[in-house]
Design a protein that fits this description.
Layout lengths: L1 E3 L2 H9 L10 H13 L6 E5 L5 H6 L7 E5 L18 E4 L15 E7 L10 H11 E15 L7 H15 L2 E2 L4 E3 L20 H10 L4 H4 L3 E11 L1
Parallel strand pairs: 2-3, 2-5, 3-4, 5-6
Antiparallel strand pairs: 1-9, 6-9, 7-8, 8-9
Helix pairs in contact: 1-2
Length: 238
């Protein structure tokens, strides 16, 4: 699976109670996607990458589900993340970044490795190590589920930044079937490097993007000509 989350999907997740209607930003949409993929999961081992004070794990770690939940995060504020750890005691926090091959994350241990709004912050030249480490800690038959921020442009846009987006998508696609890591997409990708914006895409609001402008003002020129959407991506280990 490698596609863009649509409005129809998001509204279905809202109707099913998988999305928090109080969250009107992109992360609310992304949370709903990950929870939709793990909604029926019980008694499994789940690792969230860069979960911060995790909304996802808080839902998956409750006693009715009996899941074993881990969170790999150094709480250094990367990507405007938190600097104070406030996860419930049922969630095991490991102070590391995936890609560092920390021995605190055991080989072949997890049924799921997931993230929300993390992968886009991984430098392109570090994606190889990031996915190699993710594959390392995943058991055979396990799944990697990522919700990845992406700026998309009009089909006729000639903005210089659009080429950077194309390159990033191409890099993601190159990781779709990796025999050396024993991972592959769970379904054929439906996004190409020449992706352009479609009205059916679920999007971050203009208000939320303006709030982001205050946090990272250097990206304002991009946000003025592009829309903020999310990739839904899923791999399985064989």
């Amino acid at each position: 699976m490698f596609d863009i989350i649509t409005k129809r999907e998001y509204w279905e997740w809202l109707d099913a109670g998988l999305a928090d209607p109080r969250r009107t930003d992109l992360k609310g949409i992304q949370d709903a996607f990950v929870l939709s993929r793990l909604n029926d999961v019980r008694q499994r081992r789940i690792l969230e990458i860069g979960g911060g004070n995790s909304r996802i794990l808080a839902a998956l770690a409750n006693s009715d589900r009996s899941n074993e939940c881990w969170n790999a995060d150094k709480f250094e504020g990367v990507g405007q993340g938190p600097t104070v750890q406030r996860n419930d005691s049922t969630i095991r926090v490991v102070p590391c970044f995936v890609g560092e091959f920390s021995p605190e994350l055991p080989d072949g241990y997890f049924d799921f490795v997931v993230s929300v709004s993390v992968v886009e912050h991984v430098p392109t030249d570090e994606l190889e190590a990031f996915f190699a480490d993710s594959a390392r800690v995943l058991r055979p038959g396990g799944r990697i589920v990522h919700a990845i921020d992406l700026y998309v442009y009009d089909f006729d846009s000639v903005a210089e930044q659009r080429q950077q987006t194309r390159g990033r998508i191409a890099r993601y696609l190159s990781l779709g079937d990796r025999a050396d890591l024993r991972i592959r997409f769970t379904a054929a990708p439906r996004v190409t490097r020449d992706l352009s914006f479609r009205c059916s895409f679920a999007t971050n609001s203009d208000l939320a993007m303006n709030q982001w402008n205050r946090i990272v003002p250097t990206l304002r020129p991009i946000r003025e000509i592009a829309q903020s959407v999310s990739i839904k991506a899923e791999w399985t280990k064989y």
